[in-house]
Fold these 3 entries.
Entry 1:
Amino acid sequence: MSAHITALHPSTGPAAGGNTVAISGCGLAATSDVTFDAASAPSFTVTSDTTITAVAPPGSGSVQVSVVTAGRPSNSLTYSYAGSAESPVLKAIAPQAGDPAGGSGIIAVGSGFTGATAVDFGGTAAADFTVASDTIIGITTPPGAGTVPVRVTTPGGTSNGESFTYSASLPPKLVAVDNVILAVVPSGTGTVPVTVTTPAGTSNPVRFTYVSAPVLKAIAPQAGDPAGGSDIIAVGSGFTGATAVDFGGTPAADFTVASDTIIGITTPPGTGTVPVRVTTPGGTSNGESFTYRQRHPRCRPVRNRNGARHSHHTRRHQQPRALHLHLMVNPDEPLPT
């Protein structure tokens, strides 16, 4: 069976190549080649059956990345070389006004948002933003005053501006673009019906469910191999429908939602201590610390039945009950007494 890849991180890079791209998937252990369209990666490292790090070759435009195992290519994912993508287009934002203190949540609709590197309000960087798709970005406003243009920047360039007004007055609730309505969601709980009313009447209802952000209570183990590929378990709540798990911003090599309270995770390569977070449609969890460190088993002395301690050499004795053992143990586990 061919390998299968699920994610590229990052999915954009310089036209000159030379940057490292982490490839996640399954069945990657026997990879013999990594291709960017027709060009092979200058080098790559198989860190586990679920993760490869490859050096991108020079290129332009958008290319398809795949891996080859047993002479068969995997599925492909799109990788874009910076400076070659089309400039983004911003069609609408909603709401179009917000608190001068910042912190308002707004939605931008348009095209070409994939790989967005910045969102600004009249030159002031957004407090935060999340690219939901190539056509939608969720944005948190920075502090400001007056009316300013909102722009989105990607490797392909900077979009046109859409006006946003800093005001304490209530913003408009609905904006329609290309048969799409942007609505500001009121606070609520549970599942509720959503309808649209026009002079012609009220539409059929569709369901909308309020989802709370997940909570991460613990992970175990809390340390693993810098090369990645370690298996850990996360315990908490609100994991159903999880869309991502990251280690200090680096996507997990793989994860499986076992239940609303447990996720099995395969670590990506990394260094140092990083926060692990889980993202669902309800938001992103708090972080729990994970430390990348190499663990080496080592010999420790244990007592034989006569009470003697031995550490390096096992010698043959005439008394068969005097056994001398060397145990390979985890350095973090206590010795038996």
Note: The first strand starts at residue 4 and ends at 9.
Entry 2:
Amino acid sequence: MRGLASVQVCRQSYFLGKNKNFCWQQEIENKIKDSYIRRVFPMVMHCSYCNSDAVLPKSGLCLDCENITESDNQLTNQAMPVIERPVNEPDAVFIYKTHFGLNKQPFGLTPDTRFFCELPSHLEALNVLLISLHNGEGFIKITGDVGAGKTMLCRKLLNELPQPFETAYIPNPHLPPIGLLMAIADEMGVEYLRYIGQNGLMKLINDVLINSAVNGKKTVLIIDEAQSMSVETLETLRLITNLETEKQKLLQIVLFGQPELDEQLNNKAIRQLRQRITFSYALKPLTSKNVADYIKHRLRVAGMGNVGLFSGLAIMAMHHYSRGIPRLINILANKAMLSAYGKGHSSIGVKQVYLAALDTEDANTKFKLFGFRKRYLLLLLLTVVGYLLWSLIIPIL
């Protein structure tokens, strides 16, 4: 035992990563000890983590290290999210979604009502629609800029209307008067001859509406992109609303359109239609806080736990470049996430949003800082420089 006794093992936790001064004497002593133990005590093993001698035979670890690894494995198993992969999904798309912890694409352009966010403007418009329809109003109009979320609101209304409402939906009303009547008849399930005239179609639609009213049904006609309708088609639409009983309208109509619809309704030729619009609402752009809520909501619905993916400055930049328009927010957010994924980043800052804005046609890329444009900032800078020069010249004089 003299050789073993002469070996004094240092207890100062010798690690090459912590102690950059390599101790050759300590290394030689450790090797001497290891070889002596293996020769005298061949059954003694060392822990693969801490190199101690008290090793459990099954795991090859000491008791302390085994407890630590068991707890780490439990935490790892609990933290790992399960991401389902759709059939025939490309590998690149699945890896992209896995990188951010997503189950689905959060910023698609299709009007998926699962992503409908109850923002103040959109929720108020939806409430106006529901209350007006329940009150039996004839004409209701919803307007908003391009990409403001009119189609999403329209689809949400189609899903939210309960019994006894029956809906007919026309997404593309750019039709002549007879074409509009045929589209309405098709949506209502009316069978008609191919060469039937406008008056014959009106009579068939009237019979179906009366039959629905007798059965306690309320028919709602929802028209998207109403600004594309001609004056003649709008006048035909007004004539349909003349179908009514003593107690209620046989047909209620909801128009979704861009601001050009208001300009078209100012035409004197259809002033009677304009007077019949009892409720109207204009969708407003999103505020900076609305943009933050909108992005977090879509990330949450897409299955992402870290809804703070976008930094606060990135949200402010997103609001500026998109002008608060939901469609532009989706485009910019999608491109910013792709840019971050390409660089291997797990968060999104101002740089990614700026690069996305430069690649987007309708983004507001004009320089603006804290409400001031570039020329005002230059004027402010010249004023400050002039004041400093004046303060330096006055003491000299």
Note: Residues 166 and 344 are 50 Å apart (CA to CA).
Entry 3:
Amino acid sequence: MRKTAILLALVISVFIPSAGAQNERAWPENVIVSGHTMGIRMQTEGVIVIGFSPVITAEGNKTPASDSGVKIGDRITHIDGAEVESSADFLGAVKTSGDTVVARFVRESVTKTVEIKPAIAAQNGEKRLGVLVRDGMSGIGTMTFYDPASGLFGALGHGVNDSGSGLLLPMASGDIIPSVVTDIKRGRAGNPGELRGDFPDSARCGDILINSSGGIFGFLKDKRVLGGSHGRLTPIADHTQVKTGPAKIYSNVRGDSVESFDIEIVKLFDKNDVGRNIMIKVTDPDLLALTGGIVQGMSGSPIIQDGKLIGAVTHVLINDPERGYGIYVENMLAEGYALRQLTKKAS
């Protein structure tokens, strides 16, 4: 049976090789490990086409955007020369447009322009393009580490991708907020589970500044999302120190508590295969009884071996939820500290 893996945040992503992993080491010897869940909010650059909906007109159903060549995954940035920052911007620009709309959009990193003739809705006379768009995402994931010296945090261990195009979500802005796990959908073979959370306080705890194949990174403002690990510094392991055998993960699968669970590292992969560096198997009977293994929302859970931070959980095998993958922490750190160097230069 073919084994398939999925990412563990609430948005599915794909693998993109990490250029940052080739950078020289620029991070500290110790960081604070977390394992606490957090709410993730991202605003896209422009609006992303997620589907089409026929416009019911007096002449019948029409799909102007699709008929003009617009595709799912396209990112619309301008309407008639005006910048589109939200779904409301997009809808408002179409409603007030002339007989033809000039839409500028990005497809696979290439900017294109298309003219679309809006359809007139029979119900209310409004102009519509017959397209469904979104301007952001929200979900739950896990904080991996925090560097108290720089304020930098890293989470997820993989990027947040657009479900339509499969590409990294182009982010205009993003933040993280506190979360509490309120329920669990247990994982079963062929049916991945998930953590379900509540966000009791929408106050921003940190800003997300980069969404990359190695995770999401930014600067922390409020340490509540670290859970009870506010001051626990942990040494960082180089990938050459990682070995098969027993290890632990820190995860927040009950309420507001971060707990330690036993796992087995069963196989190691090439350092440059970002996101799939480590294959793990959950062996902890408590976690297996509670979640069935690895579930969505645990993405970013720190992996600890011999008292050192070696990586983070990133994927679950769909047909075997007791098994999954992880990323070497040095790949995450390379991405995050490339950001840190850029912010230093900017300041």
Note: The mean pLDDT is 87.
